[in-house]
Amino acid sequence: MSHKPEFPSRRRVLRCAAWTGAGVLWVVAGGMPRSALIGSAAAAEMAASELTFVQISDSHIGFNKPANPDATGTFKELLGRIAAMNPRPAFMLHTGDVSHLSRDAEWDTAQQLIAETGIEKHLIPGEHDMLVDNGRPFFARFAPKAQSGGWYSFDQGGIHFVALINVANLQPGGEGALGAAQLEWLEDDLKNRSASQPIVVTTHIPLWQVYPQWGWGTSDGAQALAYLRRFGSVTVLNGHIHQLLQKVEGTVAFHTGLSTAFPQPAPGAAPSPGPMKVEPGRLRELLGISTVHYVKGREPLAIVDQSLGA
Amino acid sequence: MRRSTSVPILAILLLAPVTAWAADQTVTIDNFTFAPKELTVAAGTKVTWINRDDIPHTIVSSDGPRSFKSPPLDTDDKFSMTFDRPGIYHYFCSIHPMMTATVTVR
Ligand SMILES: [Cu+2]
User: Is the distance from CB of B36 to CB of B27 less than 8 angstroms?
Assistant: First the structure.
């Protein structure tokens, strides 16, 4: 359910809706997120940003079917865009499905390409990274300092980042789930924080009920959101559904990023959520990354979605 | 493949009174759906799953602890299992857990 948000800085965010470069900036207006095409100018605004970071998702290294026979190539190209960004992003958050089949060779490729950008990274697994030994090879490689269940948090640039795992031990008939142990950890992790500290949460599967018929939701996501509601600015970034989608509930903004590999249909728009086949010329418009800008005292965070075709 | 005709005929005669014929069965996966969703077979039947989607799926027992689990099946990959003991076997895809189905062994 959507609530009327009270963002004192809304007009200012709207005014900054002109980052340099082509892209789409999501702005919050009257409780409904709207996208605005970005023209030119306002590089100064971006430079004023306290912290700029990137969301990249669903690289599915190893995927080679229509509509993208070269998922490694498009991932590499988008990483190139990140590496060339000015100002340089502080880090990238990968919101899961790094690999397609949890194969070492797929993770090797991803790890090497990410390392070549020279940019810090924080990753969480998607269900495709959990196919072997409950994700142990993924965590050992990409999140060695995480809690035993794979979740972790850290602080940077005044923001508290929380990486949650909702792709472990999926149950028959169910959707994404966090589990009691992780929820308990989350409650504790957030307990003594000031409500004025911005929070960024990453999950792979959407935390809210996007489309339960396709398993696009987290069964115990509402409990996590209950712990987050007292904060003045919460941004939840997820992947999994390979399309842009944004929603605002009070002070919580949900943002679903594009895949770097292949698009998926809008909820219910196809017989199944399998890879969407599009004409080769259209593919690049449907793959992309998101850049998040944080300017102190100016919540919510500004998110610029950029497609490979832009 | 060439084979002697006498053996299959003998098999038919021996199994004639049994209603469920223990021939191999196939379950296909198309559009994130197991078909047939409910399969009934005679004990001793070999069931083969084939993934015809362009995304991987798995065949995993719904019981805890999981009594069977296939490796991830990529497009056109197959997984076979012979069901020797009567019972109702619930299973799902651990990647897309809304995909559920059963094999009933008589
Ligand atoms: Cu599946």
Answer: yes
8 Å CB contact of A101 and B56: yes
CA of B79 from ligand 1 middle (Å) equals 14
A219, A168, A185, A224: which is closest to A201 by C-alpha? A224
ipTM of predicted assembly, 2 dp: 0.82
pTM score of the predicted model: 0.85
Q: Which of B53, B98, B100 sits opposite A214 (nearest CB)?
A: B98
Say how many domains are in chain A.
Answer: 1
Question: A174: distance to nearest CA of chain B, Å?
Answer: 6
Contact present, A121 and A114 (Cβ < 8 Å)? yes
Sheet with A51-56, strands from edge to edge, namely A32-37, A24-29, A302-307, A288-294, A51-56, A91-94, A120-123
Is residue A4 one of the residues assigned to a domain?
Answer: no
Residue B82: partners with Cβ closer than 8 Å, 6 or more residues away = B44, B45, B46, B47
The CATH number of the domain where A299 resides is what? 3.60.21.10
Q: What six digits make up the tokens of A134? A: 């409950």
Q: Is residue A7 part of a domain?
A: no
Number of domains observed in the structure of chain B: 1
Q: Domain residues for A94? A: 13-307
Best of B95, B99, B100, B103 to disrupt the A interface (most A CBs within 10 Å) is: B95
Q: Quick check: B97 and A215 CB within 8 A?
A: yes
Q: pLDDT tens for residues A49-91?
A: 788 999 999 999 999 998 899 999 999 999 999 999 988 999 9
SS3 A215: coil
